[in-house]
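re: the backbone from monday

yeah here it is again, tokenized this time
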């Protein structure tokens, strides 16, 4: 797999973690608030569950924080934790991607000679180099 594809996959994983975390926090918040009408209409209904848009959490937090601060504190912590998990996934992905590379010759291919290479060219002989 090419490094570009790995990078695109890594970005997709990070965004997915953050979006799922914020969406989970939104759904949890709606559940804790009893799916009350002031929350607005759901985006869609799936299997009897009201599904809200992920960013609705922040709208509700702005409008209703005074009425249920504990709920929004926990929902915000869940959303924030997903951000930290996304960062951890980005770091882990970067480390994994860095270890996937073989011999990197970005700044040249020079390296120190191995002992058997020095012996092969005869530099260890008593006569010396000259």
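seq for it, each position gets an aa:
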């Amino acid at each position: 797999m090419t490094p570009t594809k790995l990078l695109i996959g890594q970005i997709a994983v990070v965004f997915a973690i953050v979006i799922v975390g914020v969406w989970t926090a939104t759904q949890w918040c709606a559940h804790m608030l009893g799916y009350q009408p002031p929350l607005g209409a759901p985006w869609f209904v799936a299997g009897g569950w009201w599904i809200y848009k992920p960013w609705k959490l922040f709208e509700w937090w702005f409008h209703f924080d005074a009425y249920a601060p504990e709920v929004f504190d926990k929902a915000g912590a869940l959303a924030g934790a997903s951000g930290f998990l996304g960062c951890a996934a980005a770091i882990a992905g970067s480390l994994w991607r860095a270890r996937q590379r073989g011999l990197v010759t970005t700044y040249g291919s020079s390296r120190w000679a191995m002992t058997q290479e020095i012996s092969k060219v005869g530099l260890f002989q008593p006569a010396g180099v000259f």
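The two ends are 49 Å apart (CA to CA). The mean pLDDT is 88.
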